[in-house]
Write a structure and sequence with these properties.
By secondary structure, this protein is α+β, with helices and mostly antiparallel strands. The chain contains 9 helices and 4 strands.
Amino acid sequence: MQVSEAISSRRSIKQFDADHRLSAAEIEYLYRHARLAPTSFNIQHSRFIRITDPQLRARIRPLAFDQPQVTDAAELVVISADVQAWQKAPQRYWHHAGSEKAAMIVDSLLAFYRDREWLQRDEAIRSGAFAAQNLMLTARELGYDSCPMIGFDIEAVGRLIGLPDDHVVVMMLALGRAAGPAWERGGDLPASEVIFENGFMQQLAASTATVAAA
């Protein structure tokens, strides 16, 4: 499957075949590609908590508005990110580089993130989102469907999985074999509203002209 086909055919599925299981090879393939997602300075913030215990899934489901995919999907993963990964022995992110190059990069990343708490958190969430997209597209390549989820009690789920204080929940992701169709697409905004060239000024001028004409 080409990447463009995986992107265009990926939909959020709510009903999954509760009897289907992923093979060990499929699981390894999914997470190997998830971990290839880009991260700033190769920090690799993402942490994947696979929820394989049926009892734990049953406890999470009411915290997620009783959405059936929590218990029925073949794979349920809480994608979290280490907000402080930037300062946790960062030399290990560049252990394959030469010592001089590694030292230069590590010095740069420490200077970039130090005292910028908002950026530390934003970067961690960005990394987790990239990894989630890799997971969803890889699942599509394997013929599976997915459902990214933010509709759940993040704090309560965080407590159930023992989320460390310096980590953040990015999303929960259900993967598996679809047991029903996706909803009809809600409709896309026109390209003119979302794609700009060299800034917003041309769009602003067009909007002003439209208001004036009215």
